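Support request, please re-run this one:
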Amino acid sequence: MTIFSSMNISASALTTQRLRMDVVSSNIANAETTRATIDEDGNYVPYRRKMVSLESRDSNTFSSFLERAQGGKQSSSGVRVSEITEDETPFQMVYNPTSPDANEEGYVAMPNVDPLKEMTDLISATRSYEANVTAMNATKGMLQKALEIGK
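Re-run finished. Output below.
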């Protein structure tokens, strides 16, 4: 474990939370998009909600294995985005016969984005981002105090 490992862990969390906020923003921006992609039949398909999956970024280096074998504390290397997946829940059908995207019965397929769920994810990502900024500032303060000891 180096002196900067806690800062690297916080930095990886800041990066992943920022990406998570970007995906949530994209979902909110496309909440009314009925023509996101074209399927193989040439029909428009509404936007599908995207979700971010996170996983631990444990190191598999020789030094980490040696440290674990010697009974040392297992240190984490932070977090990373494992994948961005699409939500497979069905689209909402809204009756709007005047829309150019309406089917023969007058229903329009709307994206499966729930603004309430997106706002919850956005608040969660924002709080996590703020907590990691606080942790990084605390680490920076401790390092500055350690440097003052030598004066």
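Strands lie at 37-38, 44-45, 50-56, 79-86, 92-95, 107-110. The mean pLDDT is 90.
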